[in-house]
Amino acid sequence: MSMNAEYTAVLKQEGDWWIGWIEEIPGVNCQERTKEELRASLREVLAEAIEFNRQEARNAAGEQFVEERLAL
Length: 72
Description:
Helix content: 25-40%
Strand content: 15-25%
Order of helices and strands: EEEH
Largest sheet: 3 strands, antiparallel
Radius of gyration: 15 Å
Number of domains: 1
């Protein structure tokens, strides 16, 4: 199941490092030497966090559940 969603990345340079986090998903944050590396790392960590949360939700639901898409 593919979902096209947009998230807000906050990017900030601190000395020689770039730090960033995703506003909407707690715990998704990274630190890299360049802004481009930071963007790539944030995308990777965000995808991993979403998949982890998806699996946790399905495991918690048990065997019989219904999935529905919600749009804001």
